[in-house]
Structure formats: structure tokens, C-alpha cells
Amino acid sequence: MGKVGDWVDSFNRKVATSKVGYWFKLDGSGHPKERKGSYFFTEMRAGLATFFAMSYIIAVNGSIVADSGGTCVCTAGPEDPWCKVDPTYAICKAEVKRDLITATAAIAAFATFFMGLLANLPIGLAPGMGLNAYFSYTVVGYHGQGLVPYQVAVTAIFVEGWVFFGLALLGMRQWLARAIPRSIKLATSVGIGFFLTLIGMTYSEGIGLAVGGATVPIELAGCHPESRDSVTGACPDSDKMRNPTMWIGIFCGGILTTMLLMYRVKGAIIAGIILVSVISWPRTTEVTYFPYTDVGNDAFNFFKKVVDFHQIKHVLNVQQWDISGHGGQFGLALITFLYVDILDTTGTMYAMARYASLVDEETGDFEGSTIAYMVDSVSIAIGALFGTPPVTAFVESGAGIGEGGKTGLTAMSTGFCFFIAIFFAPIFASIPPWATGCVLILVGSMMVRAVTDINWKYMGDAIPAFVCIALMAFTYSIANGLIGGICMYMLINTLVWVIEKVSGGRIVPQNKEFKDPWAPNFGSIVPSWMVYIAKGKAPWKKDEPVTSIEGTTGPEPVLVGEKGDRSSGSRPGSPIEIPSEKGAHH
């Protein structure tokens, strides 16, 4: 071990003193802003940790987005208007899922690799949870029954990517994120958490624990799929909670994963998914994912290839620019994607940069922020061409940072792992929904913890936040929650302000002194890269000061907003695993 250790140290020093080490500011590189404690092999190990924390998205995203039906057309007729049992549609949907698995791995590889190479940040990117649920179940709708066709929806995402690029170029993404009231930011995270939890309990993307009832909005399920009512989807009382796949998902995908997370086992999420999947692959069991049907045979034939490059056939470059008849819905989807992504990506990048001690406390900005936002924006647009929902930064990057990742080499290592995963599409396409259902529930539980940070003392903050949460969950729509919460906040607080001004400050609500201050600090109106050009310094050589906090566990992740604005640091749908030397936030 001594010789191996000496060789590793020697190799780390050689890399650090090379041009590669200087570019990535490795410890010992001689760069004026070198990042202490950053070594080549440490960065590689950190990249693997981030990949194992993020890799669940390959299967989960493909499965959720495939529920929209993609470009498949339902022609079953009035007897099956949603094509729930139509075998032709089911086979087409399976092909779309395989396309999306390849697309998810490909865009994650591209986005993460270039985030590391160009922005020198240890942050992983991939299509975001929460956004993919909004895309599939609200915008496009289950099996294409929503208000916007799949082709128009990915067009909106493509446009969003380039709008973001312009905002990043002008330095406005930070401004927009800071303008959102703190209570709505926190409520957004909580509402999406409940939304994902509900999805994780369904049959299509979860363990099948709950269904819509005939006499009540939702009721207990857990029966065998073939025993469900063909019209309402409800389960007979005699078969409720009897489905073995549900119990495998609960115990192996839920309880086991929870225990692994509690003991801070790296890759806990993917371990639970793998275990349930392996149990579900043999065809001779009651819990098989490959029944002897046309759909099951088709899925099993693809699974047997194991290693295969699946060419994207159904969802590649299907943008539809004629939005006549869908203009209003197109605009709503675009605005909602923009808003959620501003909170999502911007907040997560700041949180991860702070955790890696890469934030300049004087300016509130982090190293390479403009380049990072540009990489994210271009990745969103390219992902739309691949047929995926918006790409966003992942809080799971904290797993790699906790392993010592401080530079872009960590992200490049993660990106390379996603590239390798492209060639294992048959494996990722064969992960059953009951393997990922409890993951969604666990993600939801991690996101709703931000509810304790909402200001419940003042109703002007509490009521809009509650409306935002309730509408997201009970209307099965993230957009409804966002619109309702923001409108309620504006209406209530505007009326309070008017009454206070008219009365000369004599009539104020109870507990007004506890109101969250809303005075966003937009900072300089001139983007940082323009400042550097004005000073005669090339923007690509920008080196903000690095704040290093010796002997501490690092700052707690925060969302961009008012000073002291804290939330779970989560992005929609991300399990939070940010270990540190002296403790971890889970």
C-alpha cells in the first residue's frame, strides 16, 4: 500500500504541475487561486460518487417522460380513449422510453462534462426531477391527453434554453432569482415534494399504493393490476394491498434505501433501485417485469442485448414551430419552465458553490458563474432536441463535493460515467416503476422538510405559501401552485401596503413585525464579464477570490434570495446527500 500511495501522490503532483493542473487550479499548480486540497485522484473519486448519486435519473426520467407517450399517437377509439390497454401504443411507448434513456444519459454526459471543462465547477447536470413531472403530467399530459402536444412542448424548452442564454449573458438570472419572495421559494420545494410523492404512489410510475377513487378523490390501492376496475381504475376491497410488486418496492426500494441513507452509504439510492430491478427480471416469478405478453416479450428481447447503443428514433429533433391553437398553453409552459428553472438551477449552483467554498462573499457570486449558466442554457436547448425536459444542476453533486471534489475534473469524471451508461440502455430501460416509486417518495420527503423554514408567524407569508403547496399537490399541477401562490402573495401584501399607507401607518396586521423582508439585492446592473472587459481583463480569465473556511464543515446549502434565506438546498426532485467531515445535512 505504501508504494501505491507514493505512486498516487507522485501522479497527483505531476498532473498538478502540468497545464491541466493550472487550468483546473489544482493544489500545487502554482495558480494564484489554486483550490487547496484538490488532487487528481480525489477529483476522479468524487466524480464517481456524484455519478452514483445521480445515476437513478437515467431510468426515472425515461420512465416519467415516456408516460406522456412522446410522439406516439393513440388510435384505440372511444372504448380505450387513453390507450391504457392498447398493445400497439404500449410497444410504441416502450420504444419512446428507450429513446429517452439514451437521451437522458447523453445530455447528462454532455452537460456535466462541459460544466467541468469550461466552468471548472464540480457540479453535475441532467434533466431535472419535478420539471419532468410537470412536463409529462401537466403540459403534455398522460398519454398525450394534455393541452400541448409533445412536439410543441419540447419547442418551448428549446426556446427556454436560448432565453436563459440571453439572461445569463446579461447577468439577469441572479437578479430574477433574488426577486422571488422567500416564502414562495420554500413553498415551491415543498409542493413539488408532495407532487413527486403522489407520483411515486401511482401504478404508472410508482408502487401502485394509491389510485383515484369513484366516490372519493383518492383511495388505497395495492391490488394486482389485472383486478383493477377498467373504468375507474379502483381496486376491489378483497385484493387491496395484495400486489407483491408493491411490497418489494416498499421493503427493498423504500425501507432498505432509507436505512442506507441513514448510515450515509454512498450510492444508497441506486442500490435500492438495482436490488428491486434484479428481483423483478426473472420471467418465472410473480413479480416479473417481463410477462409473457406482446409488450413483455418486446421488452425482454431488448433487455437481453445488455450492451447496446440504442439509436434515438422517436423523439430526436421533433420540434413543431406552428403553435397555432396552443399559443396560450405554450406561453404558460414557457413561463413556468423559466420560473422553476430559475429557482432550480440558480439556487442549486449557488448552494453547491458555497459548499465547495467557491463563493466570493463580497459580491455574492461564485467562480465561473456566467460560463456555468451559459453551459446550462445551451444544454437545455440541446436536451430539447433530444426530447428531454429542461436540464438542471443536481444537489447530488454534494456527494462528490463531500468526497473532496473542488474542481471541474469532478464533473468531467461524472460526465464520462454518463457517457459509458449510454451503451447500457437495455439495462436502464428494464428498471420497473416499482423500483423507482419509493425513490420518488424519498425525494419528496427530503424536499418537504423545507416547510419548517416557511414563516408561519405572519399570514401574509404563510397563506400564499400554503396555497402554493396545496394547489401543486391537489390539482396535480406545479404550474397551478406557482401561479396561485404568487398571485396570492401579490394581492395580500399589496392590500396590506395600501391600507397601511392610507391609514398613515395606524392600521397594520397582527404580527406584521414578523414578515419576511422583501427587498431583493440585485447587485450591480452591469454583468461581471462586462466589468472585467472594462478593466482590460479577459472574461475567460476571471478569477474571483475563493473564500476558504478552515476547520469547518462548510456552509449549509442555501437558495438565492435575501440574506439568511435558507431552504433544504434541494432542487425539484433531488435526493439530498451532502456529507461533510463533522456532520451532514440529509
TrEMBL record:
Quick check: keyword Transmembrane in the entry? yes
Topology in membrane: Multi-pass membrane protein
User: Which keywords does this chain's UniProt record carry?
Assistant: Membrane, Transmembrane, Transmembrane helix, Transport
Q: Which GO terms describe its biological process?
A: adenine transport; guanine transport
Compositional bias segments (type: Low complexity): 569-578
Q: Specify where the region named Disordered lies, as residue ranges.
A: 541-586
One Gene Ontology cellular component? endomembrane system
Q: Which InterPro entries match?
A: Azg-like (IPR045018), NCS2 (IPR006043)
- Where mainly located? membrane
Q: What family does the entry list?
A: Belongs to the nucleobase:cation symporter-2 (NCS2) (TC 2.A.40) family. Azg-like subfamily.
Q: Which PANTHER family match?
A: XANTHINE/URACIL PERMEASE C887.17-RELATED, XANTHINE_URACIL PERMEASE C887.17-RELATED
Question: What's the protein here called?
Answer: Xanthine/uracil permease
